[in-house]
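Minutes, structural biology subgroup

Action item carried over from last meeting: produce the structure token record for CNTN4 protein (Rhodinocichla rosea). EB confirmed the sequence was re-checked against the source entry. Recorded below for completeness.
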Amino acid sequence: QTVPEELQNGGGFGYVVAFRPLGTVSWMQTVVASPDAARYVFRNESLPPFSPYEVKVGVYNNKGEGSFSPVTVVYSAEEEPTRAPTTVLARSISASDVEVSWAPPWENQHKGRIQGYEVRCWRHDEKEENAKRIRTVGNQTSTKVSNLRGNALYHLAVRAYNTAGTGPSSAAVNVTTKKPRESCQTSPCQAFVQIYQAQPFYFIFFVRFFPVLYRWNRESSTSVIETNKTSVELSLPFDEDYIIEIKPFSDGGDGSSSEQIRIPKISNAYARGSGSSTSSACTLSALSTIMISLTARSSL
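Output recorded by EB:
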């Protein structure tokens, strides 16, 4: 900062700029004769980028030299990184998030300090110049990209940056976000229960590609059977009540459950009706087999 005129204490006022490479002994000096000057540029084509220098500034007038400012360290201008990050990897975390990681450029193959990294992410049907940009700071070599579209193909690329700008981009990698969470949107998923005579007994449920959750009516714990088939069999004691639910599932997570379906204990080998069917007593084997067939009653 320049010295105000009332503090110059005489004519012929100017500045003395002294500087030296950090760690050396001898000072270089130059005179800036204008009292209004606020900068001085030292040019040296052989000076490496981002070289540290110690600098102090003194004052003088016709009566002689004044004191110097405290010594401070300044750096020559830096160049942007010249090499791209390597080993870029991306993986889908959910329907809206992906994680990307990378390795720094080889130290002996780039110039310029690295202050952080810029991750660019764009959907396959978008232009790269419209990519979402996320910047990390320091040595961080992974980050999460959020608010993406589910079940969509994305391209990601990484480049290093500093005060001079950004370096070259890594090769783009591809990742597809997971499918969005499924749920019954129009109405609760429905299941139809039919009990009929067979050896062993069969209970038939209609719902589509969902895990089946069941528990004994008097127990709080729940057993789960997952299947990608359109049917599943359960072997259960015939003389207990059971509660059954059917829930959609995909890579995006669990969906909404169907209404609970109560299966009363079987006491009539010829009972036929809905899940609320009841009947009179008869003698059965210790276990009955429940067959659950899966289809869909409402759109997902």
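Discussion: The longest strand covers residues 52-61.
Next step: EB to file the record with the rest of the batch.
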